[in-house]
Amino acid sequence: MQVIKGFEKYAPFSSESILAIGNFDGIHLGHQKILHLLEEKAKNQALPSLVLTFSPHPEKILGGKIIKMIQTLDQRVREIKKIGIKAVLIVPFDEKFSSLPGQDFIQKIVVNTLKAKVVIIGENFRFGKNREGDISLLRQSASRFNFQVYSIPPVVKDRMTVSSSLIRSSLLDGKIELANDLLGRLYEIEGKVIKGKSRGKALGFPTANIETENEIIPPGVFITTAWIDSKSFPSLTNVGNRPTFNQQETIIESYIINLNKNLYGKKIRVNFIKKIRNEMKFKTPSDLSQQIKKDLEKAKDYFSLKS
User: Fold this and answer.
1) How many domains does the chain have?
2) Is the distance from CB of 44 to CB of 77 less than 8 angstroms?
3) Which of 17, 19, 78, 155 could pair with 162 as two cysteines, CB 3.0-4.6 Å apart?
4) Residue 206: what pLDDT?
């Protein structure tokens, strides 16, 4: 898949394209529905599939909100690639771009630059100055500029409307299994293993301390899978501030089951499977050690491992 950053680096694949537009943070079940339709239409018409997405998230520029992203940009791109999309065009979203009128967005970008023959969006997607562009504006322009428009309604799962905002709030509340259901896969963070304070080692459970660019780290103790050097390992991951030791900063540490090696500097990905409990403050480190043993037994039971 070709990854293009900015319109100035965009070189058309052919005279025409099949286009999906959106923020696509999380690539959740609703996004997947849009992207699979994109790939289907592209194959039917023998034209390249193209995703137009934005970074940073428009709400960070327009709304002044502190919005935490479900994925890093690299993770978003990788999930798009898995679907088989031909290319993704990442547009730097700034105030200048946000001031572009909706009609100009359609004519200058969708039609003239990207030469879209099919445009696919979620039915709630908005674009252009003051969010004036919507599905109605696209349909008004479709006959004039000879392209088709598909508006995809939200996916509903277990009577809940799947959305990035619901997934964000679920993750921040530590509701990992709900978030996973809405994503259609396990939530994942990635980063590198750094040297910590060796608290886990002193307790008898040496952990990999993880430094990550992910903005949302669900709090608590979780059954996880760790990926190192393209190999997966069952693991137990704690996210919190180690209240037993009166720390303030949030740390991420994974105990990799049945792996005893130096991991400093290694790249690591962690998939969150199931929450065991909230982080707790214990009277003594020994009490904490005993609880970790219980947590570890639950993780091993999950993975059907023997100690």
Assistant:
1) 2
2) no
3) 155
4) 76
DSSP helix/strand/coil, 282: coil
Question: 141-172: string of b/e by CB count within 10 Å (b at 16+)?
Answer: bbeebebbbbbbeebeeeeeebbbebbbebbe
Q: What is the pLDDT of residue 224?
A: 97
Q: What is the pLDDT at residue 32?
A: 98
For residue 46, give its domain range.
Answer: 2-160
Question: How far is Cα 65 from Cα 32, in angstroms, rounded to an integer?
Answer: 26
Instruction: Establish whether the linkage from the previous residue to 56 is cis, with ω within 30° of 0.
Output: yes
From residue 306, alpha-carbon distances to 29, 81, 300, 301 in Å are 35, 37, 7, 8
Q: Please state the length of the chain.
A: 307
Nearest to 7, CA basis, from 128, 113, 117: 113
Question: Which residues of the chain fall below pLDDT 50?
Answer: 306-307
Query: Which CATH number belongs to the domain containing residue 24 in this structure?
Result: 3.40.50.620
Same domain, 194 and 231: yes
